[in-house]
Amino acid sequence: MTVLTRRRVISILAASVALPALPRGVHAATLEPYRWQGIVLGAEGDLTLYAASRAEAAEAMDAALAECARLESIFSLHQPDSALVRLNRDGRLDGAPFELLELMSQALNLAAASDGRFDPTIQPLWKLYADHFAAPGADPAGPNGSVLARVLRKVDYRAVHLDAGAIAFDRPGMQVTLNGIAQGYISDRIGALLKARGFSHTLVNLGEGLALDRKPDGNAWQIGIPAPDDHDRLVTTIDLSGGAIATSAARGLMFTADGRFNHIIDPERLTCAAPDRSITVLAPSAATADGLSTLSALAPNPMLDLPTLLAAHQARAYLIDAAHPQGSWIA
To answer: Of the residues 81, 138, 190, 319, which has the fewest C-beta atoms closer than 10 A?
Structure first.
């Protein structure tokens, strides 16, 4: 079983075999599970695949990790020469990598579909909150109004333009973060890489879960959904036979002890996700599940606000909050 505890830790609990040094000439007669665990984009991740031999598994894992590193060099906010850091520094990036253009387009489309609730240009506001509450004696009510207003002028997805391989900001000081969708995108890319290599019984967990088919025995992957306030207590388990799953919860990173201010921020309404809520989204792709779970965590009334948006993306969601402590599906 796999447990989702966003933001962003997933732990494989199913039986699997780690990848020690491979003796030459050793092959398994049947498909066996192999597993990698490590850090991707600053979060714990793992990858489980079924292969005929350790050599086959190790080669696939090496290729997947190399692709993760390449994509991280594009999307990371912490690597000083990543494409995203250069865009944020200069306000324009000519000859942007295809992957950055593609993911930015997806993020902007999701921003438009959610009327700005999901906004990749949230980084200046996120940084303001993080810096404010990290300071000694920080006002628990948050940054003062004048500072907030100045920073909010830098937050608007409509001021980002993609044109002929370039990405440009309309306003000085704008910055983008793709942390609400990039892990899912990377999971999709790794899934596509492994599928092209002939693997069909695989679970990719790089912050979001992506299943390529069932396990070889026909059983689905089991995904454990923990309570928002206690990651050791599972509320339910969800079977995943294919497609993607992602969970968002305020308690993944809270700026204040009560969770009123946390890492999931609605820039239009200046509210944060409710600390007693988690949203798990199932969707065809991990990028879609990732982005939808992020914005769904901010919905004022998920049961009323989300069905149309979810249906438009062929997705569904599982809500846990004070009104639904045992969880409830949103069609």
So the answer is: 81
Say which residues have a Cβ less than 8 Å from residue 233's Cβ, sequence separation at least 6: 226, 227
Model pLDDT for residues 222-234, shown as the tens digit of each residue: 999 999 988 788 9
**Higher pLDDT, residue 176 or 24:** 176
Long-range contacts of 91-94 (CB under 8 A, 24+ apart): 91/168, 91/169, 91/172, 91/174, 92/166, 92/167, 92/168, 92/169, 93/166, 93/167, 93/168, 94/165, 94/166
pLDDT of residue 232: 83
Q: Where are the alpha helices (DSSP H) in the chain?
A: 54-75, 83-90, 98-113, 123-134, 145-152, 182-196, 286-296, 302-305, 307-312
Residue type, 83: A
- Secondary structure (DSSP) of 130-172: HHHHHSTT--TT-S-HHHHHHHHTT--GGGEEEETTEEEESST
Distance in angstroms (rounded) separating the CA atoms of residues 203 and 47: 6
Give the model's pLDDT for residue 29: 45
Question: Cβ neighbours of residue 242 under 8 Å, at least 6 residues apart?
Answer: 211, 212, 213, 214
User: Does residue 9 have a pLDDT over 50?
Assistant: no
* Dihedral sign of CA atoms 308, 190, 165, 74 in order: positive
Encode burial over 188-211: b for 16+ CB neighbours within 10 A, e otherwise: bbbbebbeeeebebbbbbbbbbbb
Give, as one character, the DSSP assignment of residue 293: H
The pLDDT value given to residue 45: 86
Identify the bridge partners of residue 236 per DSSP, sorted by sequence position.
225
Q: Which pLDDT does position 1 carry in this prediction?
A: 58
Residue among 307, 235, 314 nearest 278 (CA): 235
Mean pLDDT (the chain, rounded): 89
